[in-house]
Structure formats: C-alpha cells, structure tokens
C-alpha cells in the first residue's frame, strides 16, 4: 500500500507531512516497547528523534475488507552506528474521504535470533 510506504519512508527521510498524511486523526502508534502514542505525539517523536538510515520490508501481506485493511510485514531497519533491528509490523487502515489512512500501527521486536538472519 502506498500509504504504508509513505509512512515508513518518513522514518528514513524525516518527512513529517508524509507521516501526518498517512495517519488518521485518531490513530494510535504502538512502539516495540509497548508505549502508545497518538498521531500528534508520534509526529513529535519523529520530529525530535533521529531517523532510520534505511529499511527493507519483507513478506508484506495485505488484506482488504471494503473500507478497512490490515497489513503484516517484517521490517529490517538500519539504525545509526551500523546497528539494525528486525520487527514484525501490523497496520490497520480505514478509507476516510476516499483515502487510506493508518488507524493503528504496531511493531513487535523479533529479538536476537532474528537479527542473526540479517545480512547487516
């Protein structure tokens, strides 16, 4: 989904307007550690924190149900200092005014065993 691509790339490019336009006004973003953020709080976090240096998405699955959709994927995230992270993502979308928006986004860490699979 292009909205998911735009949302993920905003983490790399720092494109706050891209992140904002991807998220519904009442969206919730749940971080790997379980912390929950509203759209505005998430945008504030993205504005203050360093961005990812890159990412690769694998095994993305999209299920569309009329005006709702669910995605699942595995992300290999390149962080600063040569570090990386691997997470599983779940995105929940609603079509609002003819455009897809993220209403819920959650990342789940896959742990050290998954990092051994990373080519980085």
Poorly predicted regions: none
Shape: globular
What's the helix count?
4
Structural class determined from secondary elements: alpha+beta
Record field, number of beta strands: 6
The arrangement of helices and strands along the chain is: HHEEHEEEEH
| Most strands sheet | 6 strands, mixed
How much of the sequence lies in strands comes to over 45%
Mean pLDDT value: 89
CATH fold group: Nuclear Transport Factor 2, Chain: A
Question: How would you summarize what this structure contains?
Answer:
With 120 residues, the protein is α+β, with helices and mostly antiparallel strands. Helix content is 28%, strand content 48%. The two termini are 26 Å apart.
């Amino acid at each position: 989904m292009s909205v998911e691509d735009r949302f993920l790339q905003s983490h790399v490019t720092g494109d706050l307007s891209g992140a904002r336009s991807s998220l519904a006004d009442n969206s919730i973003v749940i971080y790997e550690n379980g912390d929950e953020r509203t759209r505005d709080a998430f945008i504030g976090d993205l504005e203050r924190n360093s961005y990812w240096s890159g990412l690769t998405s694998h095994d993305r699955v999209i299920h569309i149900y009329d005006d709702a959709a669910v995605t699942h994927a595995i992300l290999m995230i390149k962080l600063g200092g040569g570090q990386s992270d691997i997470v599983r993502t779940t995105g929940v979308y609603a079509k609002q005014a003819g455009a897809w928006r993220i209403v819920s986004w959650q990342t789940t860490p896959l742990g050290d065993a998954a990092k051994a699979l990373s080519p980085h």
